[in-house]
């Protein structure tokens, strides 16, 4: 049976895969979630440690989507999207770094963006209508989406990013491709960019007319491939070791994908959400109230998010009982479960800079600022077994910060970044005003 997707705001609002992916946001402003998330079957667990990342991804996707896409189409789709590795780099006998920056744009967002580009292409191949992909970015999503959708026929991409809020090389990644990719430099924060995108989806007439879809983690199809690397990380550990994952967090899509992997049966000791001073979720988990607030700029800019989109999905996942046949928890009980099982820790830029230097001095290993935030959390937590910090991006994407801490030339710049330096950026300026943006969209 093909899996259906419901809105977190209304479980009776159910859509098939194509609608959930292309519509991206339900009209009631909830988020789509798969109706069924059951543990992978015994046959998967017999061989999962020997599978390639592509095959592992195929089997996870097949299980989640049911027979919505025939196997002979789905397997190559996943294998072509995830055609780069996700190795574990062992820092100490208790701590490893999961390197998620070996894709084309050197960030974990390549997993989601490349999968999504192929899935959307597959779902719309007979539609004969241009698709407009909207995306808000605080750093890495924009470049990954630009790369994944560049020159895809019948697709137009509009990327909104905060002026001065992304690193120079991140900006180059999203403003230099041209063709079907347009960059809008918004005089505001990432939250303003996200607000503008959501306003476009709320305008049903515009959304229908332009055939709008989202490439942010509000789109459920971003989270499916992001779950693959949790399996990939765990299978690189000796058998029987349950990892604790420390996840650098901004919009919380990365962590939500981990929770999804756990609901699919992956044995995980616990999750820790590590943030910079944009600490809405850690504050909440420490017993506060959940209060989104305007983001502030930090050196780990991709996590500068004041209103994390995926909070509703996290609550939804904690509401799902271990036994799929049992009743879902109420929202209040799910929030209690989340506070009991998820730890959140937040760090300043000063501490982050110190961590970058410390790891270089002790291990000659360069952590990007986001990964350094997770490293700080890994040091502060007690957990049995092995700790894995997710390394979200290559440190060269944040060259000025890295050179301030480690000295010039310490972090080699991969050719695919170096070649962008002399290409001029092309971006249109945009006020953070919904009416202006909707008029611009047309
Ligand atoms: N950290 C992001 C912000 C957008 O988050 P997303 O996961 O919803 O795309 C970025 O790098 O742009």
From TrEMBL:
Pathway: Amino-acid biosynthesis; L-threonine biosynthesis; L-threonine from L-aspartate: step 5/5
InterPro entries assigned to the protein according to its UniProt record, in alphabetical order: Ser/Thr_deHydtase_PyrdxlP-BS (IPR000634), Thr_synth_N (IPR029144), Thr_synth_N_sf (IPR037158), Thr_synthase-like (IPR004450), Threonine_Synthase (IPR051166), TrpB-like_PALP (IPR001926), TrpB-like_PALP_sf (IPR036052)
Entry keywords, A to Z: Amino-acid biosynthesis, Lyase, Pyridoxal phosphate, Threonine biosynthesis
Annotated Threonine synthase N-terminal domain residues: 4-81
Catalytic activity from the UniProt record: O-phospho-L-homoserine + H2O = L-threonine + phosphate
Cleavable signal peptide: none
E.C. number(s) listed in UniProt: 4.2.3.1
Gene3D superfamilies membership: 3.40.50.1100, Threonine synthase, N-terminal domain (3.90.1380.10)
Cofactor: pyridoxal 5'-phosphate
Sites bearing N6-(pyridoxal phosphate)lysine, chain numbering: 109
Domain Tryptophan synthase beta chain-like PALP: 98-380
UniProt-recorded Gene Ontology molecular function terms: pyridoxal phosphate binding; threonine synthase activity
BP-aspect Gene Ontology terms: threonine biosynthetic process
Family: Belongs to the threonine synthase family.
Protein name: Threonine synthase
Organism whose genome encodes this protein: Roseibacillus persicicus
